[in-house]
Amino acid sequence: MQPFVTSEIKNNIAEITFGTPKSNSLPSEILEKLAQTILDEASKNGVQIILLKSEGDKAFCAGASFDELLEINNLEASKHFFGGFTKVLNAMRTCGKIVVVRVQGKTTGGGVGIACAADYCFATKDASLALPELNLGIGPFVIGPFVERKIGKSQFIAMSLDTEFRTANWAKENHIYHQVFENISEMDTEIQKFLEKLSVKSAEALALIKKVSWEGTEHFEKLMPERILMSASLLLKDSTKANIEKKIKCKRD
Q: What is the pLDDT of residues 120-147, one digit of tens each?
């Protein structure tokens, strides 16, 4: 499978799907395309709701592409990469349309950020999530403001430090997931019902709900460059590169 981002509009709903061969991890090219697709579809008058999902029935998103992280060797390239995640999350935040996210399996790092940037999030019981960045020698700095907005600073720090997976039920109790289902089929049935109901609601009311829900996040614009620099600088450390190499080797073995 080649990495891709596709979009299809049906009945006022823009369904955006991304996929990559390694557990839907996200390289720069896909991050850029995903962010632009969200903004492009949201700008269309006929679109009421955006559904964001990933390919397949296993991992929702494994976060950053390890292969690309290993190749980055200067600060500008590193900032560009982490800036890609910022673009996706900010597109979800500022696009003006309600963004519904579908999480069908495990998600880590940047994938957790996407789930937390959702206005409404569906998941299966297998959709556990973790912030393992510290294991690489980095930290969940770029996605941090979005995760913290959902679960609070204390839980965000705990996830950042212990790097352990939390269950889908934990994610629901901590306001990341809004509904959790036994399997993908049940989830997709309910998503369709939910989207159909929203697609005929007042566009003006939905836009105002979106606006109100993100009030108090205006400072993200100034905060994100600082957070990008944190991750970008740590990525260039020899110890970080060594940790990434170990992770890649473990996956191959």
A: 999 999 999 999 999 999 999 999 999 9
- Look at the alpha carbons of 38, 9, 48, 50 in this order and tell me if their dihedral is positive or negative: negative
- Decide if 7 contacts 41 (C-beta within 8 A): yes
Q: State whether the Cα torsion 14-37-215-151 is positive or negative.
A: positive
Would 161 be classed as within a structural domain?
A: yes
Give every CB contact of residue 198 below 8 A, 6+ residues apart in sequence. Answer: 48, 49, 98, 206
In whole numbers, what is the pLDDT of the chain averaged over residues? 96
Q: What is the pLDDT of residues 175-209, one digit of tens each?
A: 999 999 999 999 999 999 999 999 999 999 999 99
Is residue 207 domain-resident?
A: no
Nearest-angstrom CA–CA distance, 11 and 164: 40
Mutual angle of helices 110-117 and 144-151, in 10-degree steps: 50
Asked if 129 and 106 count as a contact pair (C-beta separation under 8 A), the reply is yes
Kindly state the helix (H) or strand (E) to which residue 156 belongs, with its residue range: helix 153-162
Residue type, 203: A
Domain count, the chain: 1
Say how far apart CA 168 and CA 124 lie, in whole Å.
Answer: 7
* Residue pLDDT, tens place only, 43-63: 999 899 999 999 999 999 999
